[in-house]
Every structure is written in C-alpha cells, then in structure tokens.
Amino acid sequence: MPVDVRAYPAQVVRLVSAFLSSNATPLALVLLFFGIASHDLALPGLYGDEAIDIVPALQIVGQYSEHLYNGQAGTHIALGDKQIPLMLMRYTGALKLLLFVPVAAIFGESISSVRLFTLTIAAVAVLATYRFTSLVFSRRAAALATLLLALDQSFILRTKVDWGPNAIAIACKMLALVALACWWRSSRQVLLGADSPSDWGCTTKPTSPGCSPR
Questions:
Q1: CA 31, 177, 138 angle in degrees (round to 5)?
Q2: Where are the alpha helices (DSSP H) in the chain?
Q3: Angle of helix 95-107 versus helix 111-136 axis, rounded to 10
Q4: What pLDDT is stored for residue 71 in this prediction?
Q5: Distance separating alpha carbons of residues 43 and 182, to the nearest angstrom
Q6: Position 193 confidence tier, pLDDT thresholds 50, 70, 90
Q7: End-to-end CA distance of the chain
Q8: Burial of 42 (0-12, 13-18, 19+ CB in 10 A)
Q9: Is the pLDDT reported for residue 206 higher than 50?
Q10: How far apart (Å, rounded) are the C-alpha atoms in residues 195 and 110?
Q11: How far apart are alpha carbons 214 and 91 in whole angstroms?
C-alpha cells in the first residue's frame, strides 16, 4: 500500500501544536529539565559557595558535633540548644540553609541530596517561566520559551552547581514576575502576598528582585 509522505509534515505540525497546548506540557518540560540536569550529579565536584549553606544545616540536624562555620556572627537565634543563623554572610541570607535543613534531616549529606535540592528549586523557576509567559503571551509561546530554558546549558550548570545562591534567586525572580502578571491581569487590584517572592529574594541576596546592591 503506497504511503503518502506529503501528509507527514501536517501530522507533525498537529502533534507539535497539540503538545504545546496540552495541560501536561509544563510537567513534561520539568521532567525534561530534570532528566538532563540530573545526569552525572557528582560532576563537577562540589563548589565552595555551593557547600557553604550545607555545613550549618548539617550542624542544626546534629550531623556535625564540632563547631564549624555557622553563619554570620551576631545573627543567630536560639531554638532549644541550636543556634539558627539568619544571615549566612553579611550580604547573603540563610534562606537556602533553612530550606535545606529538612532535606538534610531526611536524606543526610550527599552530593545527590544537595544537588537534587537545588534542581528542585530550579524546577520551580521552570514552572514559573511557563506560567508567566502563558499569562503575558500564550500557552504556545510559554511552551517554547520554557523548552529553551529547560535545554539551556548555562541555566542547567548555574542551578546544578549552585554558587550564589542562584537557584533561589532565579525562582524568586520568576515568581515575582508571575505575581506582577497576575496583578496586572486583575485590573491592578491589590493582591495579598504578591510581593512575597521579592521579600524571599531579599532574604537570599541583595541582588534578588526588589533589592539594590550596596
């Protein structure tokens, strides 16, 4: 039976169009990002800035008994017999550290736990990118933009080897844009908590959204 190859391009276009408009597209793009970014998690080796949040978190959950680096002096609050830092350094907050505490308590200390944690935060940025672009433009534009982000090697490396901390800053920026788009689409009515991503970003690093470096 002869096959009409001329029908193939039209079928491909229909399949691609259906994928770009599907409700499952954001999840598929996140899985694509995870699949690429989680390859060879141990490479390259842990970077100094990547691990600086991890040591205080491990001390909080009792995995390190000796006193190692535990954040900026004078910024701690007492919680039982634990000293919880609010600032990692003079210009970096302890948000990543505090978010990693339950991960450290459950999964312990390993390159996989550290990097899967930051890649999960990066996945929030991927989803927020899709949401923002779909609000401002269209679902097809959102799918294409998010696909480019999920495949971007600089984004993958920057969030896998999380010096900065970059993953939280990028996620907060995209969530802030989502909040801005929702506020704009609501005829600029007041949205409770719409500035929260900027507030979270400020507690991470002063170059995050809503903050100016000094």
A1: 65
A2: 7-20, 25-37, 48-51, 54-60, 95-107, 111-136, 139-151, 153-160, 166-185, 196-204
A3: 130
A4: 64
A5: 39
A6: low
A7: 73
A8: exposed
A9: yes
A10: 34
A11: 9
